[in-house]
Design a protein that fits this description.
Structural class: alpha+beta
Number of domains: 1
Strand content: 25-35%
CATH topology: 60s Ribosomal Protein L30, Chain: A
Number of helices: 2
Distance between the termini: 20 Å
Order of helices and strands: EEEEHEHEE
Shape: globular
Radius of gyration: 14 Å
Length: about 130
């Protein structure tokens, strides 16, 4: 028995130049590539400004959720990558701003770098369609 799967398409698609799918729907589950502070035109947003980057990340997540016919309250798991764990308190605050109880399951790690040198945060998402 085959499970229905399809790529989630964006237009414009800022990650197309990197040979990445923005996300996949498999059955009733959504799996997104890591979302970073990249505009629809493929430019880094908020260089040196963590808060601006985080806002863009959630804008990108919302855009993908909308394209998949879902919403933020359907997110069940996030993995957050930070280039500086000093921003952890801002992530805790952001969870309270961008999510409601019950909060998604969450993993957070500090990484040396992200795909582009000016990126400070990236979040990947698993949600329900």
């Amino acid at each position: 028995m085959s499970t229905h799967r399809q790529v989630i398409k964006l237009n414009p698609d800022p990650v197309a130049p990197y040979a990445i799918s923005p996300g996949w729907q498999v059955g009733h589950m959504l799996f997104f590539s890591g979302q970073a502070a990249i505009s629809e035109q493929g430019e880094v947003v908020g260089v040196g400004d963590f808060d601006a980057q985080l806002q863009q990340v959630f804008h990108n997540i919302d855009r993908l959720l909308h394209a998949a016919g879902s919403s933020r309250d359907q997110i069940i798991k996030v993995t957050i990558y930070l280039t500086d764990m000093a921003n952890f308190p801002k992530i805790v605050q952001a969870r309270k701003v961008y999510f409601e109880h019950p909060f998604p399951a969450d993993t957070i790690v500090e990484v040396r770098a992200l795909a582009l040198p000016d990126l400070m945060v990236e979040i990947d998402v698993i949600a329900v369609a």
